[in-house]
Specification:
Low-confidence stretches: 1-18
CATH class: Alpha Beta
Number of strands: 6
Mean pLDDT: 89
Largest sheet: 6 strands, antiparallel
Shape: globular
CATH architecture: Roll
Structural class: alpha+beta
Helix content: 25-40%
CATH topology: Nuclear Transport Factor 2, Chain: A
Radius of gyration: 18 Å
Order of helices and strands: HHHHHEEEEEE
Number of helices: 5
Length: about 140
């Protein structure tokens, strides 16, 4: 009897702590693509910074953001970008969007964590660049 009650309590506790968010990979991908276009291709730091999630803006200064973008895109920057994949972030409002950029001489691989939901919209919470393609994972899917 005690074991049954313990299992019931664990089940109820687990179900209460599980939060499901209605996500839209297409919507998040479009927002990430727009951000990447502004930040990497157009190099409009002011506009790119204004597109960040408010928590990200509170965490980093515009100057540090600009320096970070310059550092990850030196000596060249992409001339075009495309969102290729998405990966849900379990238990959080958002997902990772994977972006590939191209220039005449180089391919760029980015991961942009997007914070939000279908109802709230999506805003970038950061940006990461990898020297090669990001490794595949079972939770990563093509857009």
């Amino acid at each position: 009897m005690k074991r049954s009650i313990a299992i019931l309590l664990l089940t109820v506790t687990a179900s209460c702590s599980y939060r499901a968010f209605k996500q839209s990979p297409i919507m998040a991908g479009a927002s990430a693509t727009e951000f990447a276009q502004v930040a990497f291709v157009e190099k409009n730091i002011d506009k790119a910074f204004s597109m960040l999630d408010p928590e990200a803006q509170a965490y980093i200064t515009k100057e540090n953001f600009s320096q970070g973008l310059t550092k990850i895109n030196t000596p060249t920057t992409p001339q075009s970008i495309i969102a290729t994949d998405f990966e849900p972030i379990p238990g959080q409002e958002g997902m990772n969007i994977y972006i590939t950029g191209e220039s005449d001489t180089e391919t760029f691989y980015y991961r942009i964590p997007m914070k939000g939901t279908e109802a709230k919209g999506y805003r970038p919470a950061g940006v990461f660049r990898n020297p090669g393609p990001y490794p595949k994972s079972p939770s990563r899917h093509p857009l």
